[in-house]
Structures
1.
Amino acid sequence: MKSHHYVGRFAPSPTGPLHIGSLLTAVASYVDAKSHNGKWLLRMEDIDPPREMSGAADSILQTLEHYGLRWDGDVLFQSRQHSRYEAAVQQLLASGKAFYCTCSRSQILAASGSSSYPGTCRQRHQPPDQPFAIRLQVQDREIHFEDGLQRYQRCNLQQQGGDFVIKRKEGLYAYHLAVVLDDALQGVTHVVRGSDLLDATFCHWYLQDVLELPHPQYAHLPVIVNAEGQKLSKQTFAEPVPLADPGPYLLYCLQALGQSPPDSLRGASAAAILEWSCEHWQMQRVPHQRCIPQQTA
Ligand SMILES: [Zn+2]
């Protein structure tokens, strides 16, 4: 008998230590899973070594532990999943749904007048002699889904982006492919993540259709932006959250997520704050917008 119907996850990239923006996503996905008596899995999305920072994966895991955000089961590292990704790429090539593409960015721009892929290499079903990416052919049809927070979403990928890359020229697997395969492998039923990934969800939805994988339910949270309107990241010099005294940072996240933690939780332990959060969590109170400005204390 299945004891868990809800399987959620948090999937950071080890590009830097955990900052308040990624903590917000961790808290929301954790509390939503636990308030449904579900599992909360952890996946390290380490498939892009040039963007990664040495020690960041360990630092993220240590910070989550200090914040009381305990994951279920073992951490899944994408860097150890390459054979599964390659098998899917080969399957898509063999079925004619994916093709070899030798186009450069400037060739795509010149052929289409936009960054949308114009379908130039669609007939390339044999590996060429020059460096190539592998793209998934998209059909001219509308994809639509109901997002838990951002409501009804629709997109025709052929008109917006076109055939997309599943394996890059450098030999790295594309995020879209890895995330879809791993959500399916881990049995993820609910994806709670930042709205900066809302547009990517159309590619994920499409890949799930092509690979005959189930669609999880998606909810895209508002992302915290700095005074310049940029998402917090290593590139925008977001500060790491401190290991000591997690309480104020957890309370900040809950308030940003539209919840109303009582004053009595000030000074409380991370465990006590998370326990209150799981008992009182209301997803419908999370702001239904893509961005929220960072509040300074
Ligand atoms: Zn091409």
2.
Amino acid sequence: MKHTVLDNISFKVDLDRLFRRIHLDPQSEDAALVRNMAAKAEEIGRPKAMYKLSAIDSKQQDHVIVDGVRLSSRVMKVNFENINRVIPYAATCGRELYDWAQGIEDMLEQYWASIIMEQALEEAIKHLNMHLEERFKLGKVKSMNPGSLEDWPISQQKELFSILGNVREAIGLELTDSFLMIPIKSVSGILFQTESDFESCQLCPRENCPNRRAEYNPDLYKEFYKA
Ligand code: SF4
């Protein structure tokens, strides 16, 4: 199956949430500037996402083969135990907003732009999830993302992108030599159906992570994932 591109995603900045996030009084002088930036971002912003319904060809001790591509992760092998298809995906705030933000020189405005771009990325992810639910009725799904665990390193972005196809052409998203994504407000991963409450954070010991979604369980790998 070829990848599917979602590039008709409407984007409206949630100003209340934005002001709260950047700790700015909506009545302040700077607020007018932020409103102008938000209006510009809505005018040019084109959040996008893509995905591919992919077959798991085989599962080995420390890797799985998805659409002919080897993904090296023991955790993935265990997580994919009872399924035979998965959904590699990527979502981004879009090149348009990235290029716009690149042209901003003031550091505070750059920060505001980055939060606006985060909202655009959230919109792309929300749209992707709704589309997948409508189209495939997947039920409960979880995601694995390259680089979130040592077990599935960030260098595996390359393999993930090769499953998706020409990601740059499809949604303007590209990888640097160190496997970071440009635009930076982007996310990539593999969605899989599961009855479990898997979150990478359960296996990640990083302290004070602002994005933590689940408590670290130091015994989980040994008890559930170790070969
Ligand atoms: S704790 Fe933070 S760094 Fe670790 S997997 Fe979760 S979000 Fe990623």
